[in-house]
Amino acid sequence: MTKMTLKDLEAIKQKQNAPDRNWIKVGFSTCGIAAGAREVYDTLVEESRKHNADVEIKKCGCVGMCSAEPLVEVHVKNMPTVFYGKVDKEAATKIMEKHVCGKMLVNDRIYDLKLK
Amino acid sequence: MGKTVYLKDTAITGKDRTRDFYGVFLGILREKGLESEVQLVRVADIGIYGQGIVVRILPEGFLYTNVQDADIPAIITESLIGGKPIEGKSSLHPSRQLRIVLRNCGIIDPESIEDYIAQDGYQALAKVLGSYKPEKVAEEMKASGLRGRGGAGFPTGAKWEITRKAAGTQKYIICNGDEGDPGAYMDRSVLEGDPHSVIEGMIIGAYAIGASKGYFYIRAEYPLAIERIEKAIKQCRDRGILGQNILGSSFSLDLEIRLGAGAFVCGEETALIASIEGKRGYPSPRPPFPSIKGLWGKPTCINNVETLANIPVIILKGAAWFAGIGTESSKGTKVFAVTGKVKNSGLVEVPMGTAIEDIVYGICGGALSGKSVKAIQTGGPSGGVIPKEFFQTKVDYESLQKMGSIMGSGGMIVMDEDDCMVDIAKFYLGFCVDESCGKCAPCRIGGTQMLRLLVRVTDGEGTQKDLEQLEQISVAMQKASLCGLGQTAPNPVMSTLHYYRAEYDAHVNKKKCPACKCEHLIRFMIMSEKCVKCGMCFKACPVGAISGNRESGYLIDQTKCTRCGQCFEVCKPRAISRS
Q1: What is the pLDDT of residues A67-107, one digit of tens each?
Q2: How does the average pLDDT of chain A come out, rounded?
Q3: Residues in contact with B49: Cβ distance below 8 Å, sequence separation at least 6, in sequence order
Q4: Cα gap B222→B181, rounded to integer Å
Q5: Is B249 an 8 Å CB contact of chain A?
């Protein structure tokens, strides 16, 4: 690979930050994985295929609320971006069906984390 | 975007009324024909505790606490339809957290360098290499007031300057990721969640001190952190961010990983250096400090993971910005790993000078299930306890020291009324005795003897003379030990003796453990007048110490009982006494 310069950094930044897409992030640090993030991730991927959902599923580090892991952050256009905590297979299915496809937030699962 | 309403009953005691309230709210929305425009959601946690039913309106963020059914129509007309807060009743409740170190944790994919670059990653490095002289980088750090986050709080800028000025052409930079304090895992999370920020901080540090080689020292117990740092280093090498002529400049640096093999003492910098050199992890006397004579006798700068993660942001946003956060002597933020008997355990990053109560109650929601918090322990085995009476103390290096504890690496363990302070002191001292390398006598012998005395106290054989002796040995260890491990090992004992002398006295004089924790000083008995003969205790007892049947009732055989307390926990009518 060619060596990067300052210009390349700018180019990558532009490219990464460009489009506003729907995404889901699953906490994939030790705390998340120990609590079952892998199963949640796999379920989300499988369900998104099933529903042919327009959403990118990504992995990320620990946001800090380790007691609520597995944590899943969901961003769908025209809806508030929310964290779902203690997500299991069932909840992951619901998130895909109700939130991503049905544009309805899922009850009793949201952790209102104020990180900023 | 339509409106969203979050609901949650945050009352600590009593029945959870969230569902009932949800029903009432939804009913009123339906009456007004708004149910399709407003999304009503019951949430699992709203970030506020003990303030009745809490309602939050999004996207504006209006917040109402202690809401009654009668308040609903006003909230609907004013805030949902009118889009305004109700005067005097709404608060915006800004976050108490400020995320500098954890800025990217949970935001980016840690295995993607592009994700990091998109969050201004490596911009600070480009700025430094493009327009800063090494001296200016160290100056900037000094001006920012950043102090080492590993616990001791040595000013980072000064450390860099000393290493830079030290004689010699070959210099090294080391990232200390040997996080060993029980209950502390901030560094692991940063390494796992945002590895590139640490690498960037390290390259900037290496440039400032003139190092061409750097080492990550990470404990082998963190396999995922190691894997992610390995990947990140490879990505950097492939893209010319590490190696020869970084980002086209004349500066070159390579990084390697060394694994710690599980010794706590290797977090001490001289022992860490010995470990990297392939020697046994023994500390050596300082001076000479590693900045003058470190790895293979060359000037070496050792920085903690959290310290390094701060650096890119300081360079980008400026020293003055960073110096504006925190207190007079402690700048910036600190990440705490809050664990123990607390509702929300996890990582919390707050500006220096935040009160302990804001962290324990405000952010973490206080004690677990109805118990009350008794104290916190900070600084791991080198720290001390802070009783809840002093929770208005602000967290910074000096204030915590004044309280007889230390900032430490950032472990904060919450203890409730069921925790015995003598037992806590015994636990931490036992940890240090296990981890003592044995090189110097004060630590090796002093620690063992103190532990012996503490065991006597918790076994109910202690005397007042033992307590005096504990204090004497503590002072000797603090003064005469070779490294930080031995010098600070008595701190948990000293601090619990200071704040909880009465508990020690109860163990010694009355042979009683007030928290009912020390197994030799308590006994469990079934009170026949309260017993309903349900047999739950009989089933729960793991050692078969409970005999009897549902007709005649049950009895605990004190010779077989191990005082595990399981019968006490399962007994619904509270017919088992613990004394």
Answers
A1: 888 999 999 888 888 999 999 999 999 999 989 888 888 88
A2: 87
A3: B10, B12, B343, B361, B365, B366
A4: 14
A5: no
* CA B216/CA B258 separation, integer angstroms: 6
Residues of chain B where predicted confidence (pLDDT) is lower than 70 = 1, 92
B431 Cβ contact list (under 8 Å, min separation 6): B182, B264, B381
Nearest to B339 by CA among B317, B364, B314: B364
Strands A82-84 and A110-111: antiparallel
Nearest to A3 by CA among B250, B214, B246, B195: B246
- In a mutagenesis test of the B interface, which of A17, A76, A84, A105 is the best target, namely the one with the most B β-carbons within 10 Å? A105
Q: How far is CA B289 from the centre of its chain?
A: 28
| Residue B394 CA to its chain's centroid (Å) | 16
CB contacts, 8 Å: B189 with chain A: 29, 31, 61-62, 64
ipTM of the modeled complex: 0.89
Q: Do A12 and B118 touch (CB under 8 A)?
A: yes
Q: Which helix (H) or strand (E) holds B436?
A: none
Token look-up 């022992």 returns B271
Question: Which of B320, B323, B123, B143 is CA-nearest to residue B203?
Answer: B123
Interacting residues of B288 by C-beta distance below 8 A, sequence separation 6+:
none
Cis peptide bond prior to B287, omega within 30° of 0 = yes
Rounded to 5 degrees, φ, ψ at B282 are -100, 135
Look at residue A115 in the predicted model and tell me its pLDDT: 64
Q: Residue A110 is nearest to which of B41, B241, B345, comparing CB atoms?
A: B41
pTM, to two decimals: 0.89
